Amino acid sequence: MPSRETGIVACLPFFEGLPRTRTGTIQRDTMKYFAMFTDNGNLAVENLVNDAIAKRQSWNEVQARLSKLSQKKVDGIKRYAEATDTDVEDHVYAELVRAKNEWDI
């Protein structure tokens, strides 16, 4: 029987193609930390940030996406409610600034 984490990952399309261990869980050493409560939460935010960087979205657009993620329900439960917490937003903003500095080089 798959773990609960694997079950959640399986129902979210943006987890497809990520490195997995032999048991099917996501390899944690490939993930960035965004102060989410779970590895799946950190991965969801990392995916959001990578997409925002690729699209060169503004901070307001990224905040709106974090808000939408915080409202997302899996099996009727908000799994990422902390996505709009200040600590999470600070980590996301720092990653966006790092990316912007690379664009300006």
Describe the structure.
With 105 residues, this protein is mainly alpha-helical. The protein has a domain at 32-103. It has helices spanning 4-10, 39-55, 59-71, 86-103; strands spanning 73-74, 77-78. The protein has a two-stranded antiparallel sheet with strand order 1-2. Helix 2 (39-55) packs antiparallel against helix 3 and helix 2 packs parallel to helix 4. The N and C termini lie far apart (49 Å).
Quickly list its features:
mainly alpha, 2 strands, 105 residues
Instruction: Look at the structure and give the mean pLDDT.
Output: 79
Largest sheet strand order: 1-2
**Largest sheet properties:** 2 strands, antiparallel
State the separation between the terminal residues, measured CA to CA: 49 Å
What is the helix/strand order?
A: HHHEEH
Kindly state the percentage of residues in helix. 40-55%
- The number of E-state strands comes to 2
Radius of gyration, Cα only, in angstroms?
14 Å
Residue ranges: pLDDT <50 for 5 or more in a row? Answer: 1-17
Number of helices: 4
Q: Roughly what fraction of the amino acids lie in strands?
A: under 5%
Category from helices, strands and their pairing? mainly alpha
Tell me, briefly, the overall form: globular
